[in-house]
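Design a sequence for this backbone.
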């Protein structure tokens, strides 16, 4: 239990990239993933947001080059999570835009959203286009918990998104975790 008085400041750990996150919370997130065995957490940063949608938007923003002439294409292999197109284009950012199915994508710069197990079909997926060159993958692992699928390997990707609502079964919980 983290005492309430401990969170009375915007600064809990100024040496951390996520300076407002409680160090105890960071340690417990890492402990949970090590215990479950669903994600490699050593040597990465744990970020927290108000749900994984906020962290997805942060990843899209961070991965999109600021000086690009065209917005970076955001793709996912069909069938994909129905919220991806809407959330990608929600802010009408000039940095990135929804470009559809990764199977039919033709282009250079892209961000591939990889949902595994996939919503809506439950398939275990890897990046179709891969991370390399002008392309980056963001792995949405909201359902990569033992109550939804067998944990066959420890996910170890550059960017992994998790959400507490799926791990606990509380759909209204607005805590997302990202491992970068």
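Sequence:
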């Amino acid at each position: 239990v983290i005492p309430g008085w401990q969170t009375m400041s915007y600064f809990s750990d100024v040496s951390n990239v996520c300076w407002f996150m409680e160090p105890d919370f960071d340690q417990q997130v890492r402990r949970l993933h090590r215990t479950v065995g669903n994600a490699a957490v050593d040597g990465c940063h744990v970020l927290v947001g108000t749900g994984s949608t906020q962290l997805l938007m942060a990843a899209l923003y961070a991965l999109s080059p600021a000086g690009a002439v065209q917005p970076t294409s955001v793709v996912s292999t069909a069938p994909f999570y129905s919220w991806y197109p809407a959330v990608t284009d929600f802010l009408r950012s000039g940095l990135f835009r929804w470009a559809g199915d990764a199977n039919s994508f033709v282009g250079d710069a892209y961000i591939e959203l990889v949902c595994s197990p996939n919503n809506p079909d439950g398939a275990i997926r890897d990046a179709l286009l891969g991370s390399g060159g002008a392309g980056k993958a963001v792995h949405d692992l909201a359902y990569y918990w033992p109550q939804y699928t067998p944990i066959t390997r420890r996910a170890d990707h550059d960017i992994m998104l998790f959400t507490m609502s799926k791990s606990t079964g509380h759909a209204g919980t607005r805590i997302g975790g990202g491992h970068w």
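The chain has a mean pLDDT of 85.
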